[in-house]
Amino acid sequence: MMQIPSFLFFVSACEAALLVRHPSTLFRPVSAQFQVRTHTTTVRLQESPSDSASPGLIDALKMRARIFQESNAAGLGFKQCVADAIAGEYDKGSTEAELRKIIGSAPVVMFSWTVSPACKKAKRLLALAGVEVKVVELDQPWSEGNPKRAQLGRMTGKSSVPSIWINGEYIGGCDDGPTDSAPGLIDYTFQGKLAPLLTK
Fold this sequence. Notes:
Blueprint: H1 6-21, E1 27-38, E2 41-47, H2 57-73, H3 78-87, H4 92-103, E3 108-112, H5 117-128, E4 134-137, H6 142-156, E5 163-166, E6 169-172, H7 185-190, H8 194-198
Parallel strand pairs: 3-4
Antiparallel strand pairs: 1-2, 3-5, 5-6
Helix pairs in contact: 1-2, 2-3, 3-6, 4-6
C-alpha cells in the first residue's frame, strides 16, 4: 500500500471540487470510493471508466505521491518536494529554457502570485524605488505556473515566491533568500547592493 502525504489529498480534493462544479469526463458523482469533506459540503467521487487520455483522481494522486517520493529520495527539501508534486509531470529542460528566456527579457523580473502578501510587498517596494519590473504571475494560470515554480526552486534552492531577478542574477525573495549571496530584496537594499546592481 502506498502512503500518500496528506497535502496531496487537499490538492486533489480542490481539483475534485472544481471538477464537480465543472463536470468533465474524468469524474462522475457517485458514492463510496472517495469522499472529501469541505466545511459542510460532502463531495463523493468515483473514477469514471478508464480513459487512457485522462488519468482519474486515484491515478493523479499516485503520480503526485511518486513525484514527491522521487524528489525526497533525491535529497530535495520538503517545500521543493511539495512544489514538484503540485507541478506534476513536466519537461524540466524546456521549462528551464523558457524561464531563462524570461529572466533575460528585462533588467528586473519577478515571478509572483497575485494574492501573495510577500509578492505585493515586493512590488510596492520596487515601485517606491522607481524600479520598472517585469512581473510574471505564476497563478495565471496555475497549470502553467506550477511547473515554472517547481523549476525555479530547482534553479535557486527556494521554491517560494516572489522570485526576484536583476540583470539575470537571482537576489532571493522579498524578505529572505536561500544564501548570503541571494538574501532577498530588503537585505539587498539595506546592504547597499541594490542600487549598484540596477545601474549595471
